[in-house]
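Pilot study result, target chain (604 residues):
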Amino acid sequence: MKKAISLLLIFCLILSTAACGKQSAESTPAAVAGSSEAATQPVETEPQPTEPSPAFEGDTHMTGAVGKNGAAACASKLASDIAVQIMEKGGNAIDAAVAMIYAVGLLEPAASGVGGAGQMVIYLADTNEYVSIEYMTQAPAAAWPGVLDTSTSSTPPSPEAVAIPGVVHGTLTALEKYGTMSAAEVLQPVIDLARNGFPCSERWNTNIEGRLDNLKSYEYTLNLYTDEGFLYEVGATIKNPDLADTLEFIAKEGIKGFYDSEFTDQMVDYIRKQGGVLTHEDFAQYTSVMRDPISTTYGGYTVYTTTGPSNGGVALLECLNILEHFDLKGYGFDSPETLQIMADAYAMSYQDGVSFMADPDYYDLPVAEMISKEYAATRAESIKIGQRIKTARAGRLEVTLSETGQKVMADYTPDQGGTTHMVCADKYGNVVSSTNTNGINFGSAIAVPGTGFVFSAHLGNLNNTAAARVNMIMPYIRVRSTTCPTIVAGADGKPVLAIGSPGNWALVSAAIEGVVNYITFGMTLGDVINSPRSYRDGISKTLTLESGYSETTAKALEAMGFELEDYDKEFSSHVGSLAGIQINEDGSFWALGDFRRMYGASAY
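Predicted structure:
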């Protein structure tokens, strides 16, 4: 009986399949009545979308790219595409990096832009040298301790906290000294994108929501970044024709046009009407600065980064020097010992960075001592395996006003995530690592009508009291920041890794972990960036720990007295967002943007 039922079911299934096949064939365009070929025509089907695949090992979230001629990674895939287009047209990595800086300013205006600041480390293949261009914001002539309201915690930030922007001077200087293309050629793709528009991303709206109250304080700014006060739908087209006009002006008139012209007066007049203090003279005296990168050796490699006014670079190198005193590889990547050592080493480096770094033109800074192997050895003695350093303190170093700083003071008579990182490498061997910032998201929120960009509120990074030991606000002092764009060189002196991150002090920690992952744990770029990360605030026992670490490790860290944060999350917003390029032995590039902040990469 069961056999008969089974045969009957099979017979019905055959009939059903034949009927379905006949119906499908008759519904296709090939099955035309009276056509003898109808029965033999193949059925055309819609092409099926292919699943994205990793660009290389460890590219878990498909945000990577592989190329042999050039590569770029940054906060936006569209911006990295523009960088690659510049290189495809014959430009070098410096040309491409400058285009990318302005493209990111358009696409992620909360974090950087024309009104902000930055630093870049460049490897020049022709001369086999590392150079650095510092274009941090600068305090105006009216900036004296206790005189201005430099608060950035108010809504909106105080207009008196607006600083002289450095991006235009720094990027055009980079083009003039090391680029191969004109400003007009480099900026044209960004101008086109600003005029024609780009799709709204989730990240765009996240940034808007975080600072919406500040933006609402200025009607022009609010309309610049929202749809008449409302969030754009994700995917909707956003245009910024005012910024396109500004970039065309910059391309044509250059540094003088931005810093010493009627355009300067237009910016100054509006800022002063809002309560700011910048003057035409403040803009006209601004200049970017060529500074020698600082470096240290670590695990057979040399790590290059930026010096003051950044305090992130010295902290990065000091921390790596401390870590050399411990067998991290022996303990393993996912171990409480490794995480405790890195957390404690970073906490001490953080304290030194805060205590001893500022504008090197205004202070005599102990940079050489801070990044020395000898100093790191004394700091390493404070780390005891299994015992968390409860209160990390700065070392015993000295910082004093330089002759310039003393003169300025004698004449006296009474960063939250707004940062971004990008990397670029070309077929000629040039490499650029650059971090740019508005200080806090959307900076001051002040945008001069018709210009299309916001100014920073960067004076909030300076100590606004005459009793400050270091980094005191003074006329024309360079604003301190944690930015530390980094390039790692192999034994032959040539770059093997370019890396960096946004994220206030978390950007330093992220860069350190990226370097350690690459050198100590032998990870390739995919795992360098996508592996779980941690972050210890230098003044607390809170340890941000992503859930990729084992429960055993987490419990052991808690037993040491750490209070874990975000361990229930695969990705934390407190561990930075790396952009990196790995230069392989065969000359090819792997580029990767961190999925944590929707970064992207391109290559060709």
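One observation from the pilot: The mean pLDDT is 90. A full batch analysis is planned for the follow-on phase.
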